[in-house]
Amino acid sequence: MKVKVISRSTDEFTRERSQDLQRVYHNYDPNLRPQEKAVEYVRALTAAKLEKIFARPFIGALDGHRDGISCMAKNPNYLKGFFSGSMDGDIRLWDIANRRTVCQYSGHQGAVRGLTVSTDGRILVSCGTDCTVKLWNVPVATLTDSDDSTDNSSEPLAVYVWKNSFWAVDHQWEGDLFATAGAQVDIWNHNRSQPINSFQWGTDTVISVRFNPAESNVLATTASDRSITLYDLRMSSPARKVIMRTKSNSISWNPMEPMNFTAANEDCNCYSYDSRKLDEAKCVHMGHESAVMDIDYSPTGREFVTGSYDRTIRIFQYNGGRSREIYHTKRMQRVFCVKFSCDASYVISGSDDTNLRLWKAKASEQLGVLHPREQRKHAYHEAVKNRYKHLPEIKRIVRHRHLPKPIYKAASLRRTMMEAERRKAERRKAHSAPGSIVTEPVRKRRIIKEVE
Amino acid sequence: MEQYNTNISENVLDFKRQKLKGQLPLREELYGKSAKAAAKVEKNLVHILWILPSSGRYMAVAGRKGHIAVVDMNNMNLVKEIQVREIVRDVVFLHNELFFAAAQKKYPYFYNRDGTELHCSKASSLYFCRSFKFENAQGRTDLMWVNPFNGVVSLGHSGGTVTMWKPTTSALLIKMLYHQGPVSALAFHPNGHLMATTGKECKIKIWDLRKYEVLQTLTGHAKTLDFSQKGLLAVGTGSFAQILGDFSGSHNYSRYMGNSMVKGYQIGKVSFRPYEDVLGIGHSMGWSGILVPRSSEPNFDSWVANPFETSKQRREKEVHSLLDKLLPETIMLNPSKIGTVREAKKKEKPTKQGREAAMEAAVEAIKGFVWKNKTKGRNKPSKKAKKKQELIAHARRPFLDQQLKEEQSLSKKKQKLFEEVELPASLRRFARKKPTA
């Protein structure tokens, strides 16, 4: 009788030459891995700590402007190209990868208020407080790569002078129309020196304008009468309007769910709306301590970035009530404009301190080409962190953000005030006749009315 | 025994003095006794061995007299041997084969592979060893074993109890009376659900650690126990090593193999080699290995334990194992609880039917009670009936009390609710302060 006993020859299990790869054997028997969950938990904890250690979101500052940055535009056709306009009328084209000015335009007399690029990425439209709209030629991408010298002598392709100063401009996603906002909303064609259409609803100034990414004829504006208005170019008058308690500074459409948009409000919050149902916000994004100045959606539609007067930038999930990330530096002053890059991995902010700042969208992401083993490791870390994210220790580490002292204090003060307000409302309700006071949800509280 | 027996009678034969000759038989008897004692001591100088639990490639052997050796089991090469010149009670590897610790006469000592003493722990050794989670033989509690499944440390005591400890609390987790006599050996199944213990009263017991009850009791003395990776149980006693197996899957261990050493050899410790079908036996004349088919896991996982590990792989693994070092709070009786939701504490209230059924069951249990015959005069039927009634009333009492209490609280709650509804919302908070009278 033959009795089988384990017998391994060393030659079979070791490599012959040092150039050979070491053989790997697998056995997924759980008995070989005691305390697997505890080990996984420790790994998740390590992953959370490593994420904190590697969270270095700030890549660099782009200096060159001589006054605060007022507006920015991204080139939809060229990833590295970014335009910025400043309060002294200067317009620059930046090469983000090399962090330098590629082209400097002669710009406007007063502040540049709006910048936008046509769909094909050839024409830059700018508008300013000097009541002019200017069209500029964008240097071709191949040329910007080879040409090192900055081109200072570029002249506008066209200058259109109009009656009032402008506040914002936006180009259609598909088509050759662009809209300017000022005393009213004007729709322009590239080749016409006068607007082809004008909309007005109320007498107040329109602050910002954005075209819908899917329906090229739909646009949304915010105005200083605290309203958010929807327009359809095919109609003769504006379509719908919602009036809030405070004005919205900026607006951005979700590119992946184009019926939804988010408005950056003066009351420190952002409000996501469904454009079909304006009587109630879909989500209120809280976190900023001062007015939110600008907002931009990531091309993935899963998150958006906001810049605020409180000198911070925050990144929110499209459906998250609190911010996922907060960025700040000692030198960054009030942020007037923010943009997500077209590959959703960078965030660019322009602030009062004349600098553009380049940030990573994911603070601890490793840049550069990753080895497949590195990719697998990152994926594994992400998975275990996600699996144990609800455990208190990991939650605490992942959620913790260091805040500058003034912002931390402002936040705690704001919390106290809101708590006091809530308590007062509760007491008022308790001392009134039952049913006479209805508590409104936060999503409705700041909305005054919806006008058709 | 021969080597200790110095035959004096031959040397003193030519003694002429009568007086000395008379003393000779007495002397001889005395010498014979001492030779026997010396041989007995020698018998007890057994070897302890410890096979690296992760890969099973290295083995540390310690002789009672102070000889410690590290052996590479792949090619049976001696890596290092040292002589510490004092009694060695136990020897273990630390996290890998580069370091080992030996429990010597007074303190545990730590050595590296070259035999250099790294550290001598003069703190209370038992505490120290517990915090570092390895086995050591010290003091009255001369058994310490770590459950591989959850990292909980078990101690076997001379009182027959086994206690379980975790590092985060100073209180013990479990204390159970396992044996009538002192516990002499302890071993855990690799899946952590079975524990084998043996006591000095010639019982080997196999326990289910999920229910904390005995599954099987075997008769027989054992000095040392060890479970293999596939669940075979090696039992060593005297000069006989026996292997028990459970091939039916019903935790019914029966004799699988037996191995007798040369008579007179005393087995000190048996230890299965992981990933090889080998049982190492440390005995009074050194150590031997026997083949035990179906004892170990045939397929190893390179990421868990690699018997053919290169030094580069070992170094990388050391770093990874340091990164994955478990936190003390993850050591608990049921480690699969980590990351799960704590069960709601809300107790489900028993229904009225359920409560009545429980009461009936309690009464039925009392009815089955057997009357013990008492002395004359106390055995009357009337007395029996009275006693029975008393017992039934006694069994019913807690249920009735509970019911009464619940009814009272319910009526109180109802009354309160009624009062509250009466008041307007703004006055409700004053109502609570109102005296109940």
From TrEMBL, chain A:
Domain Sof1-like protein, chain residue ranges per copy: 361-447
CC annotations in GO: small-subunit processome
Pfam families: Sof1 (PF04158), WD40 (PF00400)
Main location: nucleus
InterPro entries listed in its UniProt record: Sof1 (IPR007287), WD40/YVTN_repeat-like_dom_sf (IPR015943), WD40_PAC1 (IPR020472), WD40_repeat_CS (IPR019775), WD40_repeat_dom_sf (IPR036322), WD40_rpt (IPR001680), WD_repeat_DCAF13/WDSOF1 (IPR051733)
One Gene Ontology term from the biological process aspect of the record: maturation of SSU-rRNA from tricistronic rRNA transcript (SSU-rRNA, 5.8S rRNA, LSU-rRNA)
Recorded superkingdom: Eukaryota
Nucleus recorded as keyword: yes
Key words of the record: Nucleus, Repeat, Ribonucleoprotein, WD repeat
SMART domains: WD40
Gene3D superfamilies in the record: YVTN repeat-like/Quinoprotein amine dehydrogenase
Annotated WD repeat ranges: 62-104, 105-146, 285-326, 328-369
Subcellular location: Nucleus, Nucleolus
Record PANTHER family: DDB1- AND CUL4-ASSOCIATED FACTOR 13 (PTHR22851:SF0), U3 SMALL NUCLEOLAR RNA U3 SNORNA ASSOCIATED PROTEIN (PTHR22851)
Protein family per UniProt: Belongs to the WD repeat DCAF13/WDSOF1 family.
Protein name: DDB1- and CUL4-associated factor 13
Record organism: Citrus clementina
Automatic annotation (TrEMBL), chain B:
Compositional bias of kind Basic residues: 374-387
Cellular component aspect of the GO annotation: 90S preribosome; small-subunit processome
Localization (cell): Nucleus, Nucleolus
Principal location class: nucleus
Region (Disordered): 374-412
Keyword vocabulary terms for this entry: Nucleus, Repeat, WD repeat
Superkingdom in the source lineage: Eukaryota
Intervals holding WD repeats: 176-217
Name of the protein described by the UniProt record: BING4 C-terminal domain-containing protein
Native species: Citrus clementina
